[in-house]
Fold this sequence. Notes:
With about 700 residues, this protein is an alpha/beta fold. It has a 7-stranded parallel sheet with strand order 10-11-9-12-13-8-14, sandwiched between helices. It has a 6-stranded parallel sheet with strand order 15-20-19-16-18-17, sandwiched between helices. Strands 2-3-4-6-5 form a 5-stranded mixed β-barrel. Helix 9 crosses helix 25 (about 680-690) and helix 10 (about 260-270) crosses helix 13. This is ATP-dependent DNA helicase RecG. Keywords: ATP-binding, DNA damage, DNA repair, DNA-binding, Helicase, Hydrolase, Nucleotide-binding.
Amino acid sequence: MPPRDSEAGELGSLPGVGPKTAAKLAAHGLHTLADLARVVPTGYRDRRHRTPLSQAADGAEAAVVATIRKFSQRFFRGRFFAGLDCVVEEGGREIGLQCQWFHRVGGLAERAQAGKRVLLVGRVSRKKGKLALIHPEIRDPEAPGPAISVRYPEVEGVGEATLAKLCRAAIERLGSSLVDPLPPELCARLGLMPLAPALALLHAPDEALPAEAIAALQAGRSPAHRRMLFEELLVAQLALQRRRAAAQALPVTVTLLPDEGARREQLRACVPFEPTPAQWAAIDEIEADLARPRPMLRLLQGDVGSGKTLVAFAASAGIVAAGGQAVWMAPTEILAQQHTATLRPWCLAAGIRLALLTGSMTRGERTAVIQAAAAGTVDLVVGTHALLTEDVQLRRLGLVVVDEQHRFGVRQRATLRDKGRAPHLLVLTATPIPRTLALSLVGELDVSTLREAPPGRRPPDTTLMAGPVARARFRLAEHVRRDMLQGFVVCPQIEAGAREASDVDEAAAELRTLLPGKRIEVVHGRVDPARRAAAMAEFRAGAIDVLVATTVIEVGVDVPEARFMLIEHAEHFGLSQLHQLRGRIGRGTATSWCLLHTGAEAGSAAARRLQVLADTHDGFVVAERDLAERGPGELFGLRQAGRVAWAGLAGEGVALLEAARTAASELLARDPALHGHAELRARVERHARPEAGDAG
Length: 696
């Protein structure tokens, strides 16, 4: 059912929104007035009280009146920087204060004139005894604006002030027509705020609110945040559970043949090592699914290097032996090529006909693979998004394997499965998922877990280094020169930008100076795929000493000889992502090491967060910490503009997940089509459409 006109009216009906602005909003998942109404602010600033600067804690929000001494702005190495020197009179003495901006702010120079007395509102930074405000607002002390200001997420091409006006205008326009999709009895049972009061608290907090209520809003743990997060989780759960029911409605085409233990011996004959007990357990779970008349829907999760490829091969071999075909989809050509290289000798030993299909193949190569797949003369096809095109058909598709599942949308997975009649589905992830999150976030999938690594793997020694990045590069260069090592340097960005962080070009230039005679190459997402593939091939062959890259190397790079990694400004990455990057080394038996650099001070919150990686190599421990701090959106790419943040509700988030899963099951048991919950059904159907986000 489409949303009602009152909610789905064109955003162009709002003052100041033309086609271009509407398109920019739509690119961030904001299509309707109801979407704008549900945008969750990113922060709040309380200007009701002037904070004594001497009492402001590091990282806290402060509002101070200061006199400007000097303002400057410049570009350095392609990066924008603006600085403001000012003085604050406090307790009969003058305190020096700096303000810093790392991206351009409209009208900043006009507001920051020397000699002016201004109200500054921003986050306090205390470094080496110096005080600074980071990206503060500059206001007139006599006309400071709203006592409690609301901050909004970044939407490219739409200013924060404009987005704030549009959100408030959408709420006003909808008025009483904005119906709460949550059943009142459910809200009462779980102690959830109704929708209208929750939106009012988020977008227009009452100036009479006590300081602790503002602090809860600022931290993302207010009753309004709790209510909005639950609604988001319930909609996702309903979509997941309805999807599972639909996926298992048809009988499968291919089921496993009776075994009597023969498959284990056949697998042992095809691979050059004995599977671990954890791999055998996962294979048993999967084969039990493959023998049933309904399609398997299973997630295989395992830490980096735990052997998921072998388990997926065993499932594929069983399906091929039963007369079916298998298809594997990987998110990058590098990973697809890596899988093909690994599988080729195993497939040869098993008599399985293997083919690779990627976007960079010639037309003739592509046509030959497509014809063989349609004719059934190829048994296992490994590919990238190229598998999703309409001309790719398989004669008897029995198994779909999707690797790095969080990089594909639900719609893409469904497109691939639609190339067969109810084939089995096995999705793989090397991002370990805490059990409670797995049950709730990927609720349409059964879960198998690999927790032990194959024998012979030595995890890298990991060290954290705070301070200037030049020191980390010098230390790296010493190791490379002394031990003749090969490895990676990872940077947060391709080129100098708004973030105060290193980029690949700058890092490569300095490393070439520090390591004369060493071959240093750069790879990132903008490099031509053919050139990137060539660089990776040379790196595997040992012709490149240091590969400077972005996160493009996060998956699909298996070079046992790579023995070091420097990750610069690691505070810009999630813990699980850092763990994935670190997994590119330590893939052989020799000692390897990972140096995590942070521009933050030793002992800072950022440094303490990163210390987790130095303390443990268990990806599940890392994932639990990431879940607590950053939420599932960071783990699985679920975050869209304006969605409620998880971090403030970290202690309660998993409980809300479980409550949403239970509530979804109860609702669907009573009303499978949600006919009695029109608003909720509309939200679920929006969630299932491509423009609503395909995460999952």
